[in-house]
Amino acid sequence: MRRALVIALTTFAAVVAAGGAWKAQPSSPPDGWHAFEASWNSSGVRQSMATELGRPAAILRLTGAVSVRSGNLGRGFRGEAIAYDDGRSSGVGRAVWVDSRGDQIFSELTGGEPVTTGRRVNATITGGTGRYAGITGEYAFTWQYVVESGAGEIHGQSTGLVGRFRLGGTTE
Q1: What are the tens digits of pLDDT across the range 42-56?
Q2: Which end of the chain is more exposed for a tag (fewer CB within 10 A), N or C?
C-alpha cells in the first residue's frame, strides 16, 4: 500500500513538474484561419496587341520564387501565373504555387488596372494537392515594380503580400 502511494505521488509530482508540457503543441485558431505574409519575385513574358482604347490588351506568363516570411504555410514555393489584361480595367488569371515536394496551391487572380507598378492584385485560394488538399483562402499584393525589357520580357516584385488560409474549409 505504501509503495502504491509513493508511485502515485511520484507520478503526480512528475506531471506537475512538467507544467502542462502537453500544451506546448501549437493549436489551430478557433476559426481555423491562419494568416501569412510572403513576397513574390517573378519574370516571364508579356504578349500584347493594340486596342481601340490606345492601351494594349495583353497575356502574361510569369514564374518565380514565393518566399513565405510568416505563417504556417511552408517557407518557399515556385509560383507560376497566367493572366489576361483587357487593356481597359479588368485583369484575370490563375496561379499555382508548388512546394519542394510537388504539392500545389491553386489561386484565381483579379486586378483592376493593367499590369504596372503599383497595381493591386487580389487572389482567392481555390484548392490544392497533397498536404494542401482542401485548402481555401485569400491573399493580395501590390506590384512594387514591373520592368519590361526587350522582346516582351517582364520582371516584377510584389510588396505587401498578405493573406489567410484554412485547410478543409471554405472562404467566408
Answers
A1: 999 989 899 898 888
A2: N
